[in-house]
Amino acid sequence: MSHPLCFETICVKNRQFQNLDYHEARLNKTRSELFGLRDQWELSKLIRIPEFVSAEPHKCRLAYAGKVDNIKWELYIPRTIRKIKKVYDDAIDYSYKYNDRNDLNFLYEQREDSDEILIIKNGKVSDTNFCNVAFLENGKWYTPSTPLLPGTQRAYLLDSGVIEETDISENDITSFSHIRLFNAMVNWENAPELLVENIF
After folding, report:
1. 3: pLDDT confidence band, cut at 50, 70 and 90?
2. Given 91, 103, 158, 193, which is the most exposed site by the fewest CB atoms within 10 A?
3. Cα separation of 15 and 52, whole Å?
4. Is residue 93 located within the same domain as residue 179?
């Protein structure tokens, strides 16, 4: 029986892996729940940083199923986000970091003149195409309790007390002042921050 490919995108900065424990935990959870595999991978032993990777931020993309399928490396170039479009899909499932992103790509194509999408599922705020999100209210940041995929940076920020998890519906968006977009490659300090008026 063939398994669907999944992947991890790991940030490498100054030739050091970032938040590797969180990636390892998610990868091993996926291998257990999706593939029925009980052995635990240690990513620090599995991946070697090539000589051509400089001190600048790089993206390490590890695709896997029962075993490693491939590992790719590329220089990370941040995206500029100025405008976000809400899109709707009540059936989308991305509870594991699948290599097949066709459903997400289909939604992303609906962004029109926006730079990013915000996916609404069953009336609840989830994620953007590539990022988890948090909203600012009275000096506190809140992340939706209904992400499509709980990211590694999101887990780190929750554990660190930087953000709190709460139920956020589409109608709640206007009660916040700002939104931030973050993922494994975009830490909290560098996360794009927009007024919620820029969500359409």
Report:
1. confident
2. 91
3. 10
4. yes
Residue ending a domain, among 35, 51, 75, is: 75
Same domain, 66 and 89: no
pTM reported for the whole predicted model: 0.95
Average pLDDT over residues 122-145: 98
**Average confidence (pLDDT) over 179-190:** 98
Angle 46-129-10 from CA coordinates, rounded to 5°: 20
Q: How many CB atoms lie within 10 A of CB 160?
A: 9
Q: Of 41, 75, 109, which residue sits at a domain end?
A: 75
Calculate mean pLDDT across residues 185-189: 97
Same domain, residue pair 53 and 93: no
The arithmetic mean of pLDDT across residues 23-40, rounded, is 97
CB 156 within 8 A of CB 125: no
In the chain, how many domains are there?
A: 2
Beta bridge partners of 121: 124
